[in-house]
Amino acid sequence: LASFSGIISAFVDNVSTVLMIAPVAVSISKKLKFSPVAMVIAIAAASNIEGSATLVGDTTSIMLASAAKMDFLDFFWFNGRPSLFWINQIGLLAAISTLYVRFRKQNSPIAKQEVTVVNDYVPSALLLMMIASLIIASFFQNKPQITNGVICVSYLIIGLIFYLIKHKNFTMIKAVFKDLDYFTLLLLASLFVIIAGIEHVGIIDALATQIVKIGGKNLFFMYSLILWISVLASAFIDNIPYVATMLPVVAGISSAMGIRPYVLYFGLIIGATLGGNLTPIGASANIAGIGILRKEGYEVKNSDFFKISIPFTLAPVLAGYAFVWLTFRNV
User: Fold this and answer.
1) How far, CA to CA in Å, does 293 sit from each of 72, 74, 187, 288, 290?
2) pLDDT at 265
3) pLDDT on residue 300
4) β-sheet bridge partners, residue 193
5) How many helices (H) and strands (E) are present in the chain, helices listed first?
6) 171-178 and 147-167 are packed helices; what angle lies between their axes, rounded to 10 degrees?
7) Which are the contacts of 86, defined by CB distance < 8 A and separation ≥ 6?
8) Which of 14, 177, 230, 316 has the fewest CB atoms within 10 Å, i.e. the most exposed one?
């Protein structure tokens, strides 16, 4: 399930992926009578790993593509080298290996469950059309910044209109809004307000300035500094405002050093994407997963989270750290 979550998250927003896959884990755990906490944490963490695998996987990928002038295909092969998609696959493999070590003794057989009957393919069709539209839009330069948002909202409206016509009442629409996890939505909104405040008073800018002072002219040291500070920062700060702030800083650093910025860009994205797995508040997907568990009556202790999150973070970060440097240090 964690691997499947990662694959889906390469093309669908991380939070949306968790909202789709985590209920499956909860359902399976109820039938097999075990706690779903570890499984849901792994699902959320895997979705964070794969968020930067493609241009449409996460907001940070879209920002990177804009800064580095990358299109959808550049995330697979860039300047004649394997790009972020393959880096993320190596990271996911390293992370999943930690799950095997953690749960290798839990090897009891699983009985075959009944197959769920699919009675409506419209949501899947809309999702695939939305992904295709986002991919096509990536090839157009100088498009309005709200393009991706307009695409997503447009498919939402199409879906609402379809179900209103199909059911001829607002019953389903009301049920959808009734089932929303308002506690998690409020928590996410509050975090963004706090983060915006931190950014407004200049704390993130001050951090970026210190990186420039400490890093000097040594490329490997600067690369390492950006990546590992991004890991630590993203454990407590949402990676979207952090990456938005750091991208122009990284561009300035590379210009001052007289190099192309790609190795520093990729180090920033690897650190900022994977660092969110360290803490329960480090990524929106983590918050969404914990919210689902809370609704089902399961409380997630910090100790339970860290037992999975720390190795699940360090393994892919180390793998990506080595791969990016070896592949792009001379690009």
Assistant:
1) 34, 37, 15, 9, 5
2) 93
3) 84
4) none
5) 15, 2
6) 130
7) 76
8) 177
d(CA 306, CA 301): 9
Query: What's the pLDDT at 202?
Result: 76
Residues 6+ away with beta carbon under 8 Å from 188: 284, 287
Handedness of CA 319, 321, 326, 327 (dihedral sign): positive
Instruction: Give per-10-residue mean pLDDT for the chain (331 aa).
Output: 90 85 88 85 89 84 84 90 92 90 78 72 88 84 80 88 79 74 72 73 72 76 90 83 80 81 92 86 84 86 86 91 91 76
72 phi/psi in degrees, rounded to 5: -60, -40
Taken in order 12, 14, 18, 21, the sign of the CA dihedral is positive
Residue 48's nearest CA partner among 100, 86, 103, 91 is: 91
Angle at 274 between CA 18 and CA 331, to 5 degrees: 130
Single-letter amino acid, residue 159? G
Give the pLDDT of residue 48. 87
- Identify the three-state secondary structure at position 43: helix
- Residue 54 DSSP one-character state: S
- Structure tokens given for 135: 């991919």
Q: How far apart are the C-alpha atoms of 22 and 2, rounded to whole Å?
A: 9
What residues contact residue 183 under an 8 Å CB cut-off, 6+ apart?
Answer: 291, 294
DSSP-assigned letter for residue 50 = G
Q: Pairing state of beta strands 77-78 and 81-82?
A: antiparallel
Residue position matching structure tokens 């449409």 = 56
Which residue is listed with tokens 């706690």? 35
Amino acid at 66: S
pTM value is 0.77
